[in-house]
Fold this sequence. Notes:
Largest sheet: 9 strands, mixed
Mean pLDDT: 94
CATH architecture of the largest domain: 2-Layer Sandwich
Low-confidence stretches: none
Helix content: 25-40%
CATH superfamily of the largest domain: Bira Bifunctional Protein, Domain 2
Number of helices: 11
Strand content: 25-35%
Radius of gyration: 24 Å
CATH topology of the largest domain: BirA Bifunctional Protein, domain 2
Number of strands: 23
Shape: elongated
Amino acid sequence: xxxxxxxxxxxxxxxxxxxxxxxxxxxxxxxxxxxxxxxxxxxxxxxxxxxxxxxxxxxxxxxxxxxxxxxxxxxxxxxxxxxxxxxxxxxxxxxxxxxxxxxxxxxxxxxxxxxxxxxxxxxxxxxxxxxxxxxxxxxxxxxxxxxxxxxxxxxxxxxxxxxxxxxxxxxxxxxxxxxxxxxxxxxxxxxxxxxxxxxxxxxxxxxxxxxxxxxxxxxxxxxxxxxxxxxxxxxxxxxxxxxxxxxxxxxxxxxxxxxxxxxxxxxxxxxxxxxxxxxxxxxxxxxxxxxxxxxxxxxxxxxxxxxxxxxxxxxxxxxxxxxxxxxxxxxxxxxxxxxxxxxxxxxxxxxxxxxxxxxxxxxxxxxxxxxxxxxxxxxxxxxxxxxxxxxxxxxxxxxxxxxxxxxxxxxx
Length: 412
């Protein structure tokens, strides 16, 4: 991609009305544009990041045996009335009336999924059902001041599983937990598996995946010797206490960002919605429901909160919008070589963002490289010479001048 043709260029100044690091950097670097508080357009660079995150999540969901679908975003009041959440979730749900009928914008899809199951599955032979989709969610967020971390409109992957027993639900629940660990590891995020409250979703305890980060809005207490971790909302312990699980470690208090959550609803919703199946004896029983979410836009914002410096974003390789950022320092003698480098890399399947602008200084181009945060910078210039490349990693200061044929081995 030629940067001169890319929609959404860098900006020199931070947006005045943003306080979060992720929003400032993503807007300045040309990844997102703000429509209003909690609502952002994803520009081409940001869209490439999201699609890579989405594909990683998709691969891990498919590995659990889940199937991808797509469910509606506008829901009739009647479906929410079946579980009573039209009233109990009113504070977070966008509700509206049209032609004397009432609707809601999706903030989650448990009811819609269960409606699908009761229409299409009747006997125990057809369980478990494991279905997921990527869709926009709408939530009446009163504190939409954290950029992509706390949006009123955001992209989410939600997976739902329906089972014939609590034991089978539990088995899959922890299988999904492991798949989530794999997702976050693939995008270079270390997470804590944290016990938490269910909020507007369930009265029971749930589990969150939390990334320790000093700019996070959550507070978690975790053991420095084992895997014990609890959210501040439910915990009775404090920093410095002895771990109640291993009895050896010390409890640490940390700020964190939630990047995923998983819920076991049991039969509470299926009983209300009459989602029943015939067991092997022909007896009708309620199904067991699990729900599992990862916010893709929130995950993108979290990566920026974690991976940055005073110059800009530092993308992990797996989700970077491009593999390399090619910079051409304007000179008639090297222009054809820069184009040749771009074409050779592209032909070899390397994703390249080429800053081919003729009206921008070398310093401005280098500053834009750092701000955008692609892992590898390649420079073509008169000083470097034809047939050679200046190679630099985004997170290192070291510069190397190498022959072009060595580039492929260094970016692999």
